[in-house]
Design brief:
Layout: H1 18-36, H2 38-67, H3 77-93, E1 99-106, H4 109-116, H5 118-134, E2 141-146, E3 149-155, H6 168-177, E4 189-195, H7 202-218, E5 224-230, E6 234-239, E7 244-253, E8 256-263
Parallel strand pairs: 4-5
Antiparallel strand pairs: 1-3, 1-4, 2-3, 5-6, 6-7, 7-8
Length: 266
């Protein structure tokens, strides 16, 4: 320890610490490298952007494939059934919100495949899907149920008594009859339609439309049948083609539902 009064000598460093100088040189070198490699970095950025766009398009295509049936162009089965259930829940919450549903089946579709081949059967499905989509209202939703079956969700639509000309399902049936595939016989469909009843289950609503479609098959095909619940008779099936009303006894044979139709005489 220096004695009191002894002057203390202070010296300045001749240069910055070596580490600081080295860090500065690295920054300068890195800056030069960036400037030199700018074109290469730009190309890498462009490639990365293009790859992201391609992935985005693939994702969009995949989502479309999941939502649209590729053969008919209608909503896919999974999304369609989810939509029916959602619309049913909305109708439950609001009793004033009417909801109609129609089940459509191409008559004798198996004969098209057997007689003309699968390619022709696919063409029939495609034309029916196209015609269906062109002849529903903007508020309606059409989807494929599988095989030769399709459906129509009709928000804000009931099945109150109407003339055949004013019934949305009957208009679709008549439009499909107009499909002309030249070498083929006339294409026809059987349609069953019904209206949602307050607080009923989705299954009850869906199955009643299915029964109406089966009733149309049983009554001779190429017709529209409306199913309305009746407190005394269960379900009344109205054939819009001959303007007759029926009840039905339903039996199950294997996996098939069989209907025995009885005309209601007023």
């Amino acid at each position: 320890m220096p004695e009191a009064g002894t002057p203390i000598e202070i010296t300045e460093s001749a240069s910055p610490p070596p580490l600081r100088a080295q860090g500065l040189r690295e920054v300068i070198q890195t800056t030069k490298e960036i400037e030199t490699n700018k074109p290469k970095i730009s190309r890498i950025h462009a490639i990365a952007k293009a790859l992201l766009q391609i992935q985005g398009k693939k994702l969009e295509q995949a989502e479309k494939q999941l939502s649209v049936d590729p053969l008919t162009g209608l909503m896919s089965k999974k999304l369609f059934e989810e939509t029916i259930q959602r619309e049913t829940e909305l109708a439950k919450r609001d009793p004033s919100r009417k909801l109609g549903f129609a089940f459509l089946d191409i008559d004798d579709f198996g004969k098209f495949n057997k007689q003309y081949g699968q390619a022709t059967g696919d063409k029939v499905l495609s034309e029916v899907g196209k015609t269906l989509q062109e002849n529903i209202r903007k508020t309606d939703i059409a989807g494929r149920e599988g095989g030769e079956e399709m459906g129509i969700i009709m928000p804000y639509t009931g099945t109150e008594e109407r003339s055949p000309e004013s019934n949305p399902s009957e208009r679709v049936r008549q439009a499909i009859m107009g499909i002309d595939l030249k070498e083929l016989r006339q294409i026809t469909v059987s349609i069953g339609t019904t209206e949602f009843i307050n607080n009923e289950s989705y299954e009850s609503f869906y199955n009643r439309a299915d029964l109406a479609m089966r009733a149309a098959k049983q009554l001779g095909k190429n017709r529209t049948v409306v199913a309305n619940p009746d407190p005394q008779k269960g379900i009344i099936f109205t054939d819009l083609t001959d303007n007759k009303k029926y009840t039905a006894e339903v039996t199950i044979e294997g996996a098939e539902k069989k209907l025995k139709m009885t005309e209601v005489i007023n």
